[in-house]
Amino acid sequence: MMEEAEPDISPIPSDQNSPSPSLSSSPSLSLPSTPSSSCGPAQAATPPLCVISEGASELSLVIDAEVAQRACQEVLQKVKLRQVEGDVTHLQNGAGLEAEPAAAKASKIREEDDHDAPAPGSVKNARRRQRHNPSKQSWLLRLFESKLFDVSMAISYLHNSKEPGVQAYIGNRLFSFPHEDVDFYLPQLLNMYIHMDEDVGDAIKPYVVHRCRQSISFSLQCAWLLGAYSSDMHISTQRHSRGTKLRKLILSDELKPVGPRARRDPLTLTPFCPTAAHGGGSGPLGGDHGLSPSKRTHQRSKSDATVSISLSSNLKRTASNPKVESSQDEPVRLAPQREFIKSLMGIGKRLATLPTKEQKTQRLISELSLLNHKLPARVWLPTAAFDHHVVRVPHTQAVVLNSKDKAPYLIYVEVLECENFETSSVPIRIPENRIRSTRSVENLPDCGMTAEQRAGSFSVVPNYDNDDEAWSVDDIGELQVELPEIHTNSCDNISQFSVDSITSLESKEPVFIAAGDIRRRLSEQLAQAPTTFKRDPEDPSAVALKEPWEEKVRRIREGSPYGHLPTWRLLSVIVKCGDDLRQELLAFQVLQQLKSIWEQERVPLWIKPYKILVLSADSGMIEPVVNAVSLHQVKKQSQLSLLDYFLQEHGAPTTEAFLSAQRNFVQSCAGYSLICYLLQVKDRHNGNILLDADGHIIHIDFGFILSSSPKNLGFETSAFKLTSEFVDVMGGPDGDMFNYYKMLMLQGLIAARKHMDRVLQIVEIMQQGSQLPCFHGSSTMRGLKERFHMSLTEEQVQLLIDQLVDGSMRSLTTKLYDGFQYLTNGIM
Amino acid sequence: MSQVEKKAGLLRRTSSSKKPLKEKVVLMYDEIFAKEDPAKNNPRFWDELFLMKVNLEYLESKLESVDGEEVQRIQDNINSLFHHCVQALGEEHQIKVVNALQTLCALFRGVHQKNKSASGFDIINMLMGFDKAEQRMKDLMERLDSLLCGDSSESLKSLCLKLLLCLVTVTDNISQNTILEYVMINSIFEAILQILSDVSSRGQHGYDAVVLLALLVNYRKYESVNPYIVKLSIVDDEPTLDGMGMVVHQALTEYNRQYKDKEEENQGGFFSTLTSMVGSMFIADADEKLSVQTNEAILLALYEAVHLNRNFITVLAQSHPEIDIAVTPTTPTPTTPTTPLGTTPPSLDMMNNPELPLDPNLQTSNLLITFLKYASIVMQDTKDEHRLNSARLCLIILTCIAEDQYADAFLHDDNMNFRVNLHRMPMRHRKKAVDKNIPSRPLVCAVLDLMVEFIVTHMMKDFPMDLYLRCVQIIHKLLCYQKKCRIRLHYTWRELWSALINLLKFLLSNETTLLAKHNIFHLALLVVNLFNMFITYGDTFLPTSNSYDELYYEIVRMHQVFDNLYCMVLRVSTNTGQWKEAASKVTHALVNVRAIINHFNPKIESYAAVNHISQLSEEQVLEVVRSNYDTLTLKLQDGLDQFERYSEQPKEAAFFKELVRSISLNVRKNVSLNTLSQDVLLKEFSTIS
């Protein structure tokens, strides 16, 4: 068959929407036929196909017009066979051509498996081949049905094809892809749904509706994105647009799961379901947890009673707070999460009105402590990678981030992992004070009476409590056991460094200590302590971010009433209110795509795409990068050069720790240099570049990419930020690591070039109907495409890289920009 | 019974006697006090009685005027009145309920007034009759419970609480109030909790409920099993505990605000210029004006909650924006009774309001901060008995807090920084600190500031030894926690050191006068041991290496004080006398301080001599200190990081007994049912009925 005949052609973008002069001669661009000739006599009467062929003259198709035509007929035939829908019936006459495979395979489509997607290189070849063999029939269909056909291609065809049949087919085909794969392209899908013509919308809608029925989180995700991407439309059209309607439909919660599932749900959704099967729901009910924190309190021993008590109080809570589902009512599927998000946004808005950081921080803490009263609930952080329920926000850990007029803030969130947040029962609330038992075991005997009296009182008290016998016995036992410890309880068991008074008590010999030793230990311990940043009320986040993540997790876990549960996890999230995160989301997608391209091509460039949740056109959430502080904070706090800081943190230049940190630094620099160049990331001051504990740099804040730059001051003309400090860390401009850096960039660019389409597609679809500044002007896509330099040979690319690096290194503007930032924003 | 009320009653009687016709209700009362069964002639007597407007004065005075013999004769009728009162509480007719509640109140008061010396059993017998008492009281408590928990009108609930408060405070010594035995058996604890957990009822009745609870907890606290103690100690329902905290918080905030208003009043205008002109003459006067009456009942409630309920500690740190009552519109609730402060507890409730009011000037606050501010005001002036008691109770509460691990954890939490504006006493030798520039710090700094402030401002002839002891112990407990958890608090320890040294100096210079009353050696020992904590364990909790040097500097600089102290204790301990042992303990405790002084003084002198400097600068001394550590050996002392845990019994029992007595008197004085205007009630119920 034709598979073997490989016409070897250098990669050519299949996307021809904005034809650049250099590509116009590409053989793939077959001459568009005139409408009359392309539309066969059979199709003349069919409006949808005519529309397509007309479109072909202005926007040339990816595929040869004739091939497409035939393929589409085929597909439409199939569609007709499968789902007897009115809109394709008029195509009967053209169906005779290639019907035999279609009929045979029609039933299989849904089961089509999609694992082991082969290297897209071959896909492209296949696509190309098909393009060049107009004589061969059903190429497109074969491609669609092949295992090579992945989501990326599906999206691309959905976007570029004007053939309703193809679109409908792809719409159906979406069902067969794994959810995660499609989810990645959700912004693209929904943007097409909103801004492209009806056919695309109709093709996408069934899939979206289907998924919405299945999943709460998908529903909300869709609703948020639909809202955000509709916002650029004119207000009058927006109200009646498809996107808005679908959004309303989703939020009205009519897309509930149908059939018996719905019947089952109210039961499984009851938050107080006592038969918690999964670890997630073990709560205080699991008094038999080995590590139950309430081990020594009254509460634990009367746990059976508490269940009934807390149940009633929970119900009370429900009455005053509609967020918590009550067991009787039909659970409102989306409400808890929406409320949760709404309160987080509300906090952000209110914080923005406060003048000082300190006030903001205090306010944040108190607002969050109120939020805690409503947790746990069926709410989750959409940025997390696993299913969970949020149980508590350790409010004192939250910090306000540095921003001039907005009030983004970072919160840590305690969650309990669960199998499925929609069906697993919501954990039962453990009161904040329950933790006290673990902390203050020794506090027991201070309850007003001596222990003996207490014991007496417990046994004498007539039953005023159903199960008081059970717990009083318990308590007395523990009290008595503990009595002997009272006298030593305040002594120190943590300090191994200081000699304890106890030791001397036992020996009775006078113990002598040298004052010098005490003084030495003091200075040693102060020096030994991991370098923490000094608390600065103007920059509260510095300290919080510097603390190693593991340590923070351990510390918060210790202080949490839920900390003992095995499914306990800590997450963090940045809540942004008043910021448009759609560009960030776009950048995330591009970064993620490049990352997987680089992984696939095995080039060791390192980048860290961080997750973005767009909630509306002016709010959202960001997954924070853990264990990382900004270069600005590093410099301000340490007062060292970057290299010296590396030496301080990782050790001498020859140590393994330093070398690996340096390698990480170089690999991440190469990755981000390319990103910055390709996406034209601007506003690269030190506040927007993070340094993590392993030496990686991570760029954040993609507010200025592609066609937009801050204030259009014309600063930052260099391709990317490469200061001499960076070069110093790499070992100077003549070092091996610096060459490695350039080599990585070369490999990275070549790999990216190979898969350019996958990157372009993401950006291009989002451009549709968008007013985002990054799409400002007409040359955004062209410019982006040009930066891949498809026409250059590898040698030329190498030269280009050298130029870029040289230019950036010598660039005065980088320095100037840093100076400018320092003057205007105080960022070092 | 207060004189005033009596008079009012008398006046009323005379005026009514002028009228030819007595009120119908008075006639009916007269019937009750006759020998006959009033229902004999009129079967609807009791029904009618509770439809009448109660004449409390008459009823009470009538009860008072009954003498021993008569009691026997009319006891059946009084029993019957009591019985019908209790029954009337179950009536649907609200006016009957109101009247029954008020009649009961008059009964309790009148009977007690008459029989001040009588045993509790006689009183019970007179009111209910022995055989029926148990049943009657059970019914009464059940009815009250259902009124408090049900949907009855707010003024009715308020009246129920009044009745209970009236009952609880009817004797001076709560423990002698035998009727309360039945209140123990038939607990209304749950009703109180319910009032506190519900936002709206808390706003209106929270204050009374909290005071009532505090008093009930103190009924025969040390002698028998008080179920209220047991129950309070195990409450773990957050909304309830928060509610309790909120009530206390609001009462204390209100106090702080009133104080501030008075202070500002005094500062501004003509008066202040006059005082400054005439000099210190008027300072005493101004102080007098500033003393708003302290709120011991609320403080007692806070103490019981902190002391008995370990879960309550979390409530202390529960933050909410500071409630400025002056700003928030308080809806006039005519039925709300006057609290001892004469204010209505604000009905506004933050917990109710998920969206906190947006005011950038609102400082975030929590109960602990409010309490610290309150304590700083109360502790300023301890001359007055009430204020001395309040100050003592404040320090006891702080002691409990300092002993609690969880409380310590949030006191030292680096993420919970607050500005706490403590009130500082205006003193001649120092200017009032500019409050605005207090940095935002962990809360423990405010506690330490408060302790330092107390230490430096109370060195007077009438030495509050007890308060000083508590104060120093609180500091010690905090240091122990810091040492144990290796918390390096950035605090200006120097201020503490110099305050403590000054205290020692004061003890020395007033040795003879103080020794007549107090064991000053115990306090001196505690103070010296604080220094020993710093010297021996400084490496575990001091914030910088410099601070350790500064400690030595301070000791060496003030060596005279330590030298004198040593001479004194040595002298006392070598003589035979009652202080011999106490003094010798101090000599032992001083060993390291003396070692430091003896080690560094010669070094500094020789440094000065070598460098020909007469007066060394601080930096130079520190330099000498730094370079001479290695040749100094210290002795490890026992038990520096151990402390005696607070326990109420037996040490504090007498104090609390007296305190509760004083609170009882105060509450009784203020719970006058008369203030609860019947017109308002009647108006309210006339629309219902």
TrEMBL record, chain A:
Biased segments, Low complexity type: 18-38, 94-106
Compositional bias ranges of the Basic residues kind? 125-134
| Membrane topology category | Peripheral membrane protein
Q: Identify the stretch(es) annotated as Disordered.
A: 1-46, 92-134, 260-331
Q: Which key words tag this protein in UniProt?
A: ATP-binding, Endoplasmic reticulum, Kinase, Lipid metabolism, Membrane, Mitochondrion, Mitochondrion outer membrane, Nucleotide-binding, Transferase
Keyword Protease attributed: no
Write out the biased-composition intervals (Polar residues).
Answer: 304-325
- EC number annotated for this UniProt entry: 2.7.1.67
Required co-factor(s) are: Mn(2+); Mg(2+)
Pfam annotation, one family? PI4KB-PIK1_PIK
MF terms from GO for this chain are: 1-phosphatidylinositol 4-kinase activity; ATP binding
Q: Where is the PIK helical domain?
A: 49-252
Name any Gene Ontology BP term: phosphatidylinositol phosphate biosynthetic process
**What reaction is this protein's catalytic activity?**
a 1,2-diacyl-sn-glycero-3-phospho-(1D-myo-inositol) + ATP = a 1,2-diacyl-sn-glycero-3-phospho-(1D-myo-inositol 4-phosphate) + ADP + H(+)
Q: Where does the record place Gly residues bias?
A: 278-289
What Gene Ontology cellular component terms go with this record?
mitochondrial outer membrane; rough endoplasmic reticulum membrane
Task: State the family named in the UniProt similarity comment for this chain.
Answer: Belongs to the PI3/PI4-kinase family. Type III PI4K subfamily.
- Tell me the protein's name: Phosphatidylinositol 4-kinase beta
Taxonomic lineage from the root: Eukaryota, Metazoa, Chordata, Craniata, Vertebrata
TrEMBL record, chain B:
Query: Keyword set for this entry?
Result: Membrane, Transmembrane, Transmembrane helix
Q: Is Transmembrane helix given among the entry's keywords?
A: yes
| Cell compartment(s), UniProt | Membrane
Q: Which domain of life is it from?
A: Eukaryota
InterPro entries the UniProt entry points to: ARM-type_fold, ARMD3-like, ARMH3_C
Entry-linked Pfam families = ARMH3_C (PF08427)
The UniProt record lists the keyword Transmembrane: yes
Question: Which parts of the sequence belong to the Armadillo-like helical domain?
Answer: 435-671
* One Gene Ontology term, aspect cellular component: membrane
Put simply, this protein is called: Armadillo like helical domain containing 3
